[in-house]
Amino acid sequence: MNPQEQFVAFQTIFYKEIKRFLRIWSQTILPPVITTVLYFLIFGTLIGGRIGEIEGFSYMQYIVPGLIMMSVITNSYSNVVSSFYGAKFAKAIEEMLVSPMPNYIIVAGYVAGGVARGLCVGFVVTVVALFFTDLHLEHIVLTMSIVLLTSILFSLAGLLNGLFANSFDEVNIIPTFVLTPLTYLGGVFYSVNMLPDFWRNVSFANPILYMVNGFRYGILGVSDIDPALSLVIISIVVVGFFCLAMWCLNRGKGIRH
Q: Could you give the dihedral angle defined by the CA atoms of residues 206, 183, 83 and 22, in that order, rounded to the nearest 10 degrees?
């Protein structure tokens, strides 16, 4: 395929993914927004008033970047894992693999769809957050870089999950037992500096901690982690996941039985 044909192939997968999650917006966009509003009401308004300030910000302001990042992570991931496994279940992946389309176009198309949904939900959650508190973007380039790389990372993770899942039940195993606990323990609702030394050191092994704090630094200008370190770690994981996804597709891992 020449570059123009490859672009058409990428565009076709990307548009299909966009239309898929927009067609069922009441299941893909509305629920995370409602969930986040409940977080704002319960943790930000009711409980936050009793906690006071953290690093010079009200509790509501402090948790907003984490909640935005949490919605981006979960939606980027769930979009790709459900769509890719659905295509695999319907044997559509085999048709793409035997076509002249390079495998990296398949990966790029699904990842772009996951990124689009993650950023779309993140944007809506940000708009809703402005009704509850004030936000001032301190470092716009860093903020955009962190959120884009994070959505790419979890879109790739969703693709890998969809690749190795053998049933619809297995699609939910990683989000339930890995992604959700890591997200809740990733500094969304607290600063790791508030933890005892042992648990603070354990928290540094959680990759989501670096994403949440990097994004928080971009918006508020405060972080428990060096933002440059966050960027480096996220970039390394993105490259690692992309290479793993390409290796699996090139060898039919998860496709051939």
A: -140
Q: For residue 57, report the phi and psi dihedrals to the nearest 5 degrees.
A: -120, 150
- Distance (Å, rounded) from C-alpha 49 to C-alpha 241? 41
- The pLDDT tens digits for 49-104 are 777 788 888 888 888 999 999 999 999 999 999 999 888 888 888 888 888 889 99
pLDDT at 19: 92
Single out the residue of 150, 111, 207, 180 nearest to residue 172, CA to CA.
180
- Residues 109, 17 contacting (CB under 8 angstroms): yes
Which amino acid is present at 12? T
DSSP codes of every residue in 21-36? HHHTHHHHTHHHHHHH
Considering only CA atoms, give the Rg of the chain.
19
